[in-house]
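Recall that a protein's primary structure is simply its ordered list of amino acids. Everything else, from secondary elements to tertiary packing, is in principle encoded there. The following example makes that idea concrete.
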Amino acid sequence: MSLTRKTVRSAVWLLGSRAWTQVMNLTIGVTLARLLSPADYGLLGMVLVTTGLVGVLADLGL
């Protein structure tokens, strides 16, 4: 298999993987928005932002 063919094949798999991840994130977000109260959904948002920031700081080594 040539390098060009491998590169194209890998790019297609990567694109498909990222698209699938976005679809699943949207599905989970809509489901949670329907199941949780507005206050609980807001709390979930704050928790997700906090954990995201902690992850970024951990990656930076702080």
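Helices lie at 3-35, 38-60. Residues 3-35 form the longest helix (33 residues).
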